[in-house]
Amino acid sequence: MNVTQAETSMSLPTPGRQPTLSERMPAPPPSPTIAIEARGFRFSYGATEVLHGIDLAIQRNAVTAIIGPSGCGKSTFLRSINRLNELIPGTRHQGDILVDGSSIYGRGTDAVSLRQRIGMVFQRPNPFPKSIFDNVAYGPVLNALVAQRDLPDLVEQCLRQAALWDEVKDRLDEPGTSLSGGQQQRLCIARALGNQPETLLMDEPCSALDPIATQRIEELIDQLKQDFTIVIVTHNMQQAARVSDYTGFIDSGRLIEFGDTNQIFTAPANERTEAYITGRFG
Amino acid sequence: MVMVLASTVVIAVLPLVFILGTLIVKGAGSLSATFFVASSVPAGQTGGGVGHAIVGTLVIVGMACLMGLPLGIGAGIYTAEYPGTRLATACRFVADVMNGTPSIVIGVFAWAWIVARQGHFSAYAGSVALAILMIPMVMRTTEEMIKLVPHSLREAALALGYPRWRATLTVVLRTALPGIVTGTLLAVARVAGETAPLLFTALGSQYFSLDVSRPMAALPLVVFTYATGPYQEWHRLAWATALVLIIVVLVLSLAARLATRQRYQRN
Prior knowledge:
The structure holds two protein chains of two kinds.
Chain A: H1 21-24, E1 34-45, E2 48-59, E3 63-67, H2 74-81, E4 91-99, E5 102-103, H3 111-117, E6 118-121, H4 132-142, H5 151-161, H6 165-168, H7 181-194, E7 199-203, H8 211-224, E8 229-233, H9 237-243, E9 246-251, E10 254-260, H10 261-266, H11 271-277
Parallel strand pairs in A: 3-8, 3-9, 6-7, 7-8
Antiparallel strand pairs in A: 1-2, 1-4, 4-5, 9-10
Helix pairs in contact in A: 4-5, 4-7, 5-7, 7-8
Chain B: H1 2-27, H2 33-37, H3 51-81, H4 86-99, H5 103-118, H6 123-148, H7 151-159, H8 164-192, H9 196-199, H10 219-228, H11 232-266
């Protein structure tokens, strides 16, 4: 039922811009510093195009924040990276996104294996109605990442990484849904880590949480960037300024500005970026 | 206003109370150990029981479940997972029509296609008729319950690299399971009390039998035969059998209620 068309496996240059050298080169070797790269990426729901050609390089082991007003396409972009948007009937894309230098639409990549390498945390905590242990073990068991006897160790490691272990170690067999909202969201992070991904996509992970739970998640993001590449979509500009190293501002389906977070928030080059971060619109 | 509404409630539940009361008054006295295990005795003699009909109902309804549940649940999963397809729309329409079809029509259908062709009544013809009754009920409940599973759960499974079919089987179906069990139990309770489809198919029998290719007794058929019969003794047994039947249906409904409640507690 998927109408997504891989019209061009090679990149499609944005109109009005000369293709850069890297775009004309076939399949470059994985960059040591760039984890994800979007090239002229366009995305449509039915007849409505919501992304009009995004060019963006996301640094490895860093936190990249995507900000922008509601409906600007920032979540669509995030959900394109693990091809989760394709499940909606009638979607189409053009251009390309490279993960570790190879196209997510390439012949050797299918959406299922891609999603195993890229973890995702959603806006609302969505633990499975299973035990805390099973929530974390769910991914590794499917993907046969570890032997059965190593599973408890992996679950513990993921829960520690998600800063949840001390709160739940005595009740791993209780349902994940019995935890508080903030704990549930950390459980969802642990669940994503269970697949041992390289990248974590976070779609407004704190918007359903109270300030204290938000602070815990933000601290956690800071720790996780040691081991993971993190892309976080947020409509909270203070949060973007606090947690991210790089910030991209998307408005009406276009990447308006991208750069170092300090620079974006202190000396934005584009006046629309400035208008947005100073709260004049959005 | 409240008084008016409250009195409608009282009037609405009055028949249930009255039915239960009558059945207990007229039937409870005849309930005994013999009643549950013994088969019928020839007309004119006293005693006897409905053991053969209890077993018969279990066999006929059990076989109906074996046929109807996989088909109903499978079709329900399909219509919930691929809601926009032409097949799903057609399936839903047919199920709604079948849900409204009088059960005697389905009995006549099973008679024409199985009994008349084979030239003899059989328990499995009855099971087929009951299965046909169950399928649309089970299918619609399964579909509704799967639709209630939050989309975010499905997305969570897919984002972990689950192929769609595995996400459906492990997360979606498991989450919807208590609701599906409830719907299934209600469907079983409903068909267990059906008389009309069995009249032309399983026919009923005075004897204990496990041969599904022969006529077989069933509780509703016993009630029908005994209640319309000429003997006082039969009427007594009919009341008691009706009581047993309504208890079976009540127990199934309570079990369904229990399965639902556990679900809410877990969330």
